[in-house]
Specification:
Strand order of the largest sheet: 1-2-3-4
Helix content: 25-40%
CATH architecture: Roll
Distance between the termini: 69 Å
Strand content: 5-15%
Shape: elongated
Structural class: alpha+beta
Length: 187
């Protein structure tokens, strides 16, 4: 039996080289503004695109987001891919109070709440699916901050185009400096 002092831990990418190569290839192709940092369990850092969703970008999105996507740090954990990475928004960074209220979908440590439960992550899922959810979180965050919706949606906007018209109205309202009307937008 090996002595506990002779056991040397390895990083997840040494245990899962195929998955590491897959993540590197997929992220580089889909999110070229992210860069890999091989410290600890590893992380991606950089700016996400404003609209990496698989449908046309709504007019007004650029105005809603101030012309740029969210800056993030995507932190892997050594149990990856069995556990999802944590995604921390850097710019915009949620206010401390927002990390304590469910409506913002931000966990107490400041990372994004992108699943209804921790078990919703499937180890076979692409890291890119999670990154797309983070970019979509940024859009909903802007809608909540603008007063266009009361809180983040339960299922997000990645596969639900229901808020696309609201994105347009709110973005155009931001461009003209007129606050959006949540009552009219709900109709």
């Amino acid at each position: 039996m090996p002595d506990r002092h002779s056991v040397v831990p390895i990083n997840w990418w040494e245990a899962e080289p195929h998955r590491f190569a897959q993540d590197q290839e997929e992220v580089a192709a889909r999110f070229p503004d992210l860069r890999w940092v091989a410290e600890g369990a590893g992380r991606w850092e950089g700016r996400l695109p404003m609209w990496p969703l698989d449908r046309p970008q709504p007019p007004g999105l650029t105005e809603l987001l101030g012309g740029s996507g969210m800056v993030v740090v995507i932190v892997y954990r050594q149990a990856y891919p069995m556990v999802a990475p944590r995604i921390y928004p850097v710019d915009p960074r949620p206010e401390p109070l927002e990390c304590t209220q469910h409506r913002w979908h931000v966990l107490g440590d400041g990372s994004l709440c992108l699943f209804q439960s921790e078990t919703a992550w499937n180890p076979n899922d692409s890291i890119c699916d999670l990154i797309v959810k983070a970019a979509a979180w940024r859009i909903e965050y802007a809608l909540v901050k603008a007063g266009a919706i009361d809180g983040m949606t339960l299922n997000g906007i990645v596969s639900d185009s229901g808020h696309d018209a609201l994105i347009t109205r709110t973005g155009m309202s931001n461009a003209s400096s007129t606050p959006p009307d949540p009552i009219a937008d709900a109709a």
